[in-house]
Design a protein that fits this description.
Layout: E1 6-14, E2 19-28, E3 31-37, E4 45-47, E5 50-55, H1 64-71, E6 76-81, H2 84-90, H3 92-102, E7 108-113, H4 131-138, E8 143-149, H5 152-156, H6 160-171, E9 176-178, H7 185-193, E10 198-199, H8 205-214, E11 217-221, H9 229-232, H10 235-238, E12 243-246, H11 252-257, H12 260-269, H13 274-289, E13 304-307, E14 315-320, E15 323-327, E16 330-331, E17 363-369, E18 376-382, E19 385-386, E20 389-390, E21 398-404, E22 413-418, E23 426-429, E24 438-442, H14 445-457, E25 461-466, E26 469-474, H15 486-502, H16 510-515, E27 525-528, E28 531-534, E29 539-540
Parallel strand pairs: 1-4, 5-6, 6-7, 7-8, 8-9, 10-11, 11-12, 17-22
Antiparallel strand pairs: 1-2, 2-3, 4-13, 13-14, 14-15, 15-16, 17-18, 19-20, 21-22, 21-24, 23-24, 23-25, 25-26, 27-28, 28-29
Helix pairs in contact: 2-3, 4-6, 7-8, 12-13
C-alpha cells in the first residue's frame, strides 16, 4: 500500500471545471499538494472515485470492512449508507456496530440516522428508535444525514413524531433522504417541501420529473432487486446537477462483478456524456452530503481512481487519502478481525402443521411477485383446496409464503404468492425488509418447515430445502451479515441461487425478491408476521377473497 509523497501522471479529469488535460498530480500527506498541466502523452485517466449515493451495506450480507474490500476494487471511495436494516433488529446497538466496524476501513462511509424503526406498526421489529434516539444519533459526528423517511403518509398528514425527527435533522443542517414510491403531483411536491432532499424510489421517468420539479434530487437506483436505471438514465444528460447513482441493495455475487462503475459504463454506452456521468456518479453525492471526499483539486484529500478510459471505466488503481487500496482488480485492504456476533433470535421450531392456510371458498388474494421490482400485484385467483385449506399449485405457480416472528414465539403468518416459479422445494431467509423476520416461499409444508428451521437453527441466514436435501448460508451478525469475505459469501450465495433456479425459479435474484415480500411500505400486497397487508390501503386484508 503506497503512502507518503508520490506523484501520478495521467490525463486529469477536472470535473469542477469540466475539462480533461494531461498533467502531474503530486500527493503529500494524504492530500493533493499540486496539479500541474503538462504536455505529456498519457494512456490512463485520473478522475474522482465513485460514490454510492444510497446503500444498505447489510444487504450485501457483509460487514462494512468486508464490503469495503470489494467495493474499492470497482473504484468506490465512499458510500452513503443507511443502517436501517440492522437498526430494525438491534436498534441503536446495531447502528453503533456499523459505525464502529466501518472505522476499520479507509472507505469513506457516511451513515445516516434511521428515521423509521420500526417501519410500520403492522409488523414486529426487534427495536424502536423514537425521536430522542434519532436525535442522539444525529448528534454523533459520524452520522451525516437523516435516513430515508419511508413514512411519507406521516409527512403529508403532519405526524408529530415524523416531523420531530425531520426537525432534528434540519436543526443540525443535515440532509433528509426520501422514500416515496409512486408519489406524484401535489403530494410529491408537499413531501419534498417538508424538507425531503432526495428520492431513490422512482419507477418511471414521469414520477422522477414530478419530484425533480418539486426540488428533489433523484438517485437512480440499480440494485440486485429493484432496477430502475433503464427507465431513468436519460436524466443524466437532462439534469446532471440533480441526479446521483445508487444501488440501495447489492448482493455479494453482483458486488464481485461491479458497483457504480458498472452504471457509468452502461450510461456512456447508451450515449450519455462521460463528463455528466462522472458528475452524477462521483461529484454530486460529495456536494449534496458534504462528504470529506476529494474531487481531484489542489488541497483535496487524495481520493481518486485511475481508469483506462472514460468509456469502459476499467479501474486500474483506487486511492483513498493518498493510499492505494486496490490495484489491477485486487483489493489491497487487509483481512479484518472477526467482529462480535451481535444478534437477536428467539423464534421456536416450526412444524408443517403450523403452515395450514384456511380457504374454504377456493378463491384467494395472491401476492403477484414481479422480477426486478419491489412492488407487487394484488391478484384474486382460484386456488386448490383440501378439507377447507389452500394447497400449493405448482402448475399455476401458486405457492405458500410464510413469515415467522423471529423476536418471540408466535404463530406463523401464511399467505399465497405467484411469480417465484418453484416446482419443488422451498427457500427461507432472515433477510426480510424491514423487520427481518424469517420469510419463506415453498411448494409444500414439509420443505417450508425444513427451510425455516435451518434459518432458525443458524440464528439467521439463507436456506434451501429440496426433499431430503437442505443447505444454509449462515448470517450470524444480526441474522443479516457474515464476517467472511465477499468472495466466500458470494460463492455460498451463488450455490444457493443455482439450487433455487434448478428447482424452477425464474427470478433473476430469488432471495433478493423474497426479502422484499415483507416490505409493507411498498404496495400492493405484502406479508408481515401479523398477516396479509394491503400497502395501498395500509391495512390488513383477508387471504380468502
Amino acid at each position: 500500500m503506497q503512502t507518503n509523497n508520490f506523484q501520478v501522471q495521467a490525463n486529469i479529469v477536472d470535473i469542477v471545471h469540466r475539462r480533461v488535460y494531461p498533467g502531474t498530480v503530486q500527493i503529500a500527506d494524504g492530500k493533493i499538494a499540486s496539479i500541474t498541466e503538462d504536455q505529456g502523452s498519457y494512456e490512463t485517466f485520473l478522475m474522482p472515485g465513485f460514490v454510492d449515493a444510497h446503500i444498505h451495506i447489510e444487504s450485501s450480507m457483509l460487514t462494512p470492512c468486508q464490503f469495503a474490500r470489494q467495493a474499492v476494487v470497482h473504484g468506490t471511495v465512499a458510500t452513503i449508507s443507511d443502517p436501517h436494516e440492522i437498526a430494525n433488529v438491534l436498534g441503536v446497538e446495531g447502528v453503533k456496530f456499523m459505525l464502529d466496524n466501518a472505522e476499520g476501513t479507509p472507505l469513506k462511509v457516511m451513515f445516516g440516522a434511521p428515521s423509521c424503526v420500526p417501519a410500520t406498526t403492522f409488523e414486529t421489529a426487534g427495536a424502536a428508535l423514537d425521536t430522542q434516539a434519532v436525535t442522539a444519533l444525529l448528534d454523533d459526528p459520524r452520522i451525516g444525514y437523516l435516513s430515508e423517511v419511508m413514512n411519507f403518509p406521516g409527512v403529508l398528514m403532519g405526524d408529530r413524531e415524523v416531523l420531530a425527527k425531520m426537525d432534528a435533522a434540519k436543526a443540525r443542517n443535515k440532509p433528509i433522504d426520501g422514500h416515496a414510491p409512486g408519489l406524484r403531483g401535489d403530494e410529491a411536491a408537499a413531501y419534498v417541501r417538508a424538507g425531503i432532499s432526495t428520492d431513490h424510489e422512482c419507477f418511471t421517468k414521469d414520477e422522477a420529473l414530478d419530484k425533480l420539479a418539486a426540488g428533489a434530487t433523484i438517485q437512480i437506483r440499480e440494485g440486485s432487486a429493484a432496477r430502475n436505471f433503464e427507465a431513468l438514465y436519460t436524466l443524466i444528460d437532462e439534469v446532471p446537477d440533480k441526479v446521483m447513482l445508487c444501488s440501495d441493495d447489492k448482493h455479494p455475487d453482483e458486488l464481485m462483478g461491479g458497483h457504480i462503475d458498472d452504471l457509468a459504463r452502461r450510461a456512456v454506452a447508451l450515449g450519455m456524456d462521460p463528463m455528466n456521468v462522472i458528475q452524477v456518479g462521483c461529484a454530486n453525492p460529495v456536494h449534496h452530503y458534504k462528504l470529506n471526499v476529494g474531487l481531484v483539486q489542489e488541497g483535496d484529500s487524495a481520493d481518486f481512481i485511475e481508469v483506462n478510459n472514460l468509456k469502459d471505466f476499467n479501474v486500474l488503481r483506487t486511492f483513498i487519502d493518498g493510499v492505494c487500496v486496490a490495484e489491477d482488480g485486487r483489493s489491497l485492504l487487509p483481512e479484518p478481525e472477526v467482529p462480535e456476533l451481535i444478534n437477536r433470535f428467539e423464534a421456536g421450531v416450526v412444524r408443517p402443521a403450523d403452515l395450514r392456510l384456511p380457504c374454504a371458498s377456493g378463491k384467494a388474494r395472491v401476492i403477484g411477485a414481479l422480477d426486478g421490482q419491489l412492488i407487487t400485484e394484488d391478484r384474486v385467483l382460484d386456488v386448490k383446496t383440501t378439507a377447507g385449506h389452500a394447497d400449493c399449485d405448482t402448475e399455476n405457480d401458486i405457492l405458500k409464503i410464510v413469515v415467522v416472528n423471529r423476536y418471540r414465539q408466535a404463530k406463523p403468518a401464511v399467505a399465497l404468492i405467484q411469480g417465484f416459479g418453484l416446482t419443488r422445494g422451498a427457500i427461507a431467509s432472515s433477510v426480510a425488509h424491514d423487520s427481518h423476520n424469517v420469510i419463506a416461499v415453498g411448494t409444500n409444508d414439509n420443505d417450508l418447515a425444513k427451510a425455516i428451521n435451518r434459518v432458525i437453527e443458524s440464528r439467521g441466514g439463507l436456506s434451501v430445502a429440496d426433499g431430503g436435501e437442505t443447505n444454509v448460508l449462515p448470517l450470524p451478525i444480526a441474522g443479516l451479515m457474515s464476517a467472511k469475505s465477499c468472495g466466500e459469501v458470494a460463492e455460498a450465495y451463488a450455490g444457493l441461487d443455482q439450487a433455487v433456479k434448478s428447482m424452477g425459479s425464474t427470478l433473476r435474484a430469488p432471495y433478493m425478491t423474497l426479502s422484499f415480500m415483507a416490505l409493507l411500505v411498498i404496495p400492493s400486497l405484502k406479508l408481515s408476521d401479523k398477516g396479509l397487508f394491503d400497502g395501498g390501503k395500509f391495512e390488513f386484508v383477508s387471504v380468502e377473497a
